[in-house]
Specification:
five-stranded parallel sheet; 8 strands
Length: 193
C-alpha cells in the first residue's frame, strides 16, 4: 500500500500557524505524538471547521487525514483535497468504509485520522460509531478534539479511555463534550444528546 505523507514543510506549517492566528484562533496544546491515532473533531457545523482544523494541525508540520465524499474528487479540486490529507470515501457503505480505514491504520506506518463523530454538518442526535470501531479493531488511541467558535480556541483534547462497549463509550464521549460547553459556527446545528 502506498505510504501516506507524514509531514508538511516548515515554511507551510509556519504560514498555516500565522493564518490561524490572523483569523483570531488560539491553539491549546500541540499535535498528537502517537504515530497512529484518531482525533475527533467536535462540533462539526460548517465547512469552515475543516479549514480551521487543517490550519491548526498543519501548523505543527503534521498531517491529519480526513474523510471526504468521493464525489468531490474531480479535477482540480481532487488534487487539492489529496494534498490536504483528504481521503475519498464512499459514504453509501458504512461497513466497507470502516474496514478500509482499519486497513489503512494497520498497513501504514503513520496514520493520523481526524473524524467528526456527527458525520455531517446538519444537526444529528445519533453520532456515528465508526471512530470507536476503528479504535477497537486497531488498538489506536482516540482523542476528544474540539474547536469552539465562541472563544476561537482549538485543541486535540484529552485521550479518551475506552471500555470496548460501544454504547457506554458513546455515552461517555457525548457527556464529555457536553461538559465543554462548545459553540459551533452554526449554533443551531450542534446537538450532543
Amino acid at each position: 500500500m502506498k505510504k501516506n505523507r507524514t509531514s508538511y514543510s516548515q515554511s507551510w506549517a509556519r504560514f498555516c500557524g500565522w493564518l490561524l492566528r490572523r483569523m483570531g484562533w488560539t491553539a491549546i496544546g500541540g499535535p498528537l505524538a502517537e504515530k497512529k491515532v484518531i482525533c475527533l473533531g467536535v462540533p462539526h457545523t460548517s465547512f469552515w471547521d475543516f479549514v480551521v482544523a487543517y490550519l491548526f494541525y498543519t501548523s505543527f508540520g503534521d498531517v491529519a487525514h480526513v474523510m471526504v465524499k468521493k464525489e468531490l474528487f474531480f479535477w482540480p479540486l481532487g488534487s487539492i483535497l489529496r494534498a490536504c490529507g483528504c481521503i475519498p470515501v464512499d459514504r453509501s457503505n458504512a461497513t466497507e468504509l470502516v474496514h478500509s480505514l482499519i486497513e489503512h491504520m494497520n498497513q501504514d506506518e503513520v496514520f493520523k485520522l481526524a473524524i467528526a463523530p456527527e458525520g455531517t454538518r446538519k444537526p444529528v442526535k445519533r453520532w456515528k460509531t465508526g471512530a470507536f470501531r476503528i479504535a477497537y479493531a486497531t488498538g489506536v488511541p482516540v482523542y476528544a478534539g474540539w474547536f469552539d467558535w465562541r472563544t476561537k480556541r482549538i485543541s486535540c483534547g484529552e485521550k479518551l479511555t475506552l471500555s470496548g462497549d460501544i454504547s457506554a463509550d458513546m455515552a461517555m464521549m457525548q457527556a464529555h463534550y457536553e461538559s465543554l460547553h462548545l459553540t459551533g459556527k452554526h449554533k443551531d446545528r450542534y446537538v450532543t444528546h
